[in-house]
Amino acid sequence: RLEFMMGEHVLPRDMTVYQAVQQFGGAGSGFTDDSDSDNRNTSMFGSPGIWARIHTIYYRPAQEEPHSSSKKGGECSTDLLGKKGKGGKWHSKRKAPDELWNEGSPPERNNPLINFLADKLPREYLQDPSLDVLCLLRVLHALNRYWYTLYPNVSRNKPVLPVTEFINTKLTAKVNRQLQDPIVIMTSNLPTWLKDIGCVCPFLFPFETRQLLFYVTSFDRDRALLRLLDAAPELGVTDTQERVTPDLDRKKRVISRETILKQGEQLMSELSSSRSLLEIQYEGEVGTGLGPTLEFYSLISKEMQRADLQLWKGATVKIGIEEAMEEDEAASDCVEYVHSDSGLYPLPIARNCKSSHRTKIKNKFQFLGKFMAKAVLDNRMIDLPFSQPFYQWLLSEETSFDVADLKGIDPDIAKTVTHLQGIVHKKVKLDSDRALS
User: Fold this and answer.
1) Residue 292 vs residues 231, 296, 370, 381: alpha-carbon distances, Å
2) Are 71 and 91 in contact (CB under 8 A)?
3) 82: which of 92, 123, 328, 344 lies 20 to 30 Å off by Cα?
4) pLDDT tens-place string over residues 25-62
């Protein structure tokens, strides 16, 4: 029994040669996976560089154990272009890790307090007497939020103090004065300390201030000015009575309601590198502007929750489609959508699923990421009720998951695991009681 490899990747048995070349045949050894394939100039036939290079596929006896002690014998190679490949590239029989499966061995859990229990801020800042106070407040806020991790057998609880207790009103007023000055935004003359404090101590500001700071520091000048004028229209008139208006490029697209999800994917791929403001109009309808655009984001959010896409974990509910205005037209069939009381979480993928299905799921989540990014960029609301663990994945906090996070993924499994965990704790307590031994 043989296994085939390209570079350091063991090829799945259901993968074709062309798929292997397209996914693992990048130039150089530092080729990453195809998660960002939409950002490269590729077509359905792959990158043009694929046809200009020689791709070598190695084969060897399949290894039962993931780690091999030494290399045995010479490896044979087969070349896609009929040329003899270079041997001696393999110094280990180590099996490439599976990106989805870890053989039941979960990664080591990290205490979320570790990143905050430090006597210095995580970045280099200007010398200021307030840095020690900010560092202390950062530690106190983390202890208030994650205090339960210091005690064994204590379930997750709410913070000891409300989060609003850490908001500094004087500092918030000073930041708001800076952010509400159109001249500061137009000249991009924002103080450096403002962004630094917003990164390491965001709890000092209310949500509205953090959101405005996010738009000012992360997006272009015109978009930040537009966000500021939406929040405070009276700031658009200066002392000289001259109107301050942002100059934003707008791109108008006409789409069909019947194939809105498919056209939405094409639209996001087309505008993935564009910073223009998107406006939507529907075929056969007169309306345009903000109303149809907001409806577009709402309809895409609804379509992404369809059960037939197999994206989300949860129960299926049937929702009827609105009947047409004509009386002689029969009622449309009901469409099944996914609903979960704890929020949407990605549906687990079977280990033996086909690579085509895996690619389809990956493409849908890539589209979802672009769709969410465009909504944030244009300040639009989307109707996708994600679960809290899903947001933690987006923030790279998955290493701190514990049993309590299962409630946001599957409440039934969480209840069973909690019960089993209680039995384990009782057994440990009985074993440690000398009076019962």
Assistant:
1) 22, 6, 20, 13
2) yes
3) 92
4) 764 433 434 444 444 444 444 555 677 778 888 888 88
Give the three-state DSSP class for 302: helix
H and E: helices and strands count for the chain = 12, 10
Cα–Cα distance between 227 and 210 in angstroms, integer? 13
Assign residue 185 a region: left if phi > 0, alpha if psi is -120 to 50, beta otherwise? alpha
pLDDT, tens digit, for every residue of 180-196?
A: 887 777 777 788 888 88
Q: Which residues of 116-154 are buried (b: 16+ CB within 10 A; e: fewer)?
A: beeeebeeebeeeeeeeebbebbeebbbbbbeebeeeee
How many whole angstroms separate alpha carbon 252 and alpha carbon 281? 7
d(CA 355, CA 367): 18
CA–CA distance, 293 with 291 (Å, rounded to integer): 5
pTM equals: 0.67
Give me 57's structure tokens: 């596929």
Taking residue 361's Cβ as centre, other Cβ atoms within 10 Å add up to 17
User: In this predicted structure, what is the pLDDT of residue 299?
Assistant: 93
Q: What is the DSSP string of 144-185?
A: HHHGGGGSTT------SS-GGGG--HHHHHHHHHHHT-HHHH
Mention every residue, 6+ apart, whose C-beta is less than 8 A from residue 41: 47
How far apart are the C-alpha atoms of 353 and 260, rounded to whole Å? 28
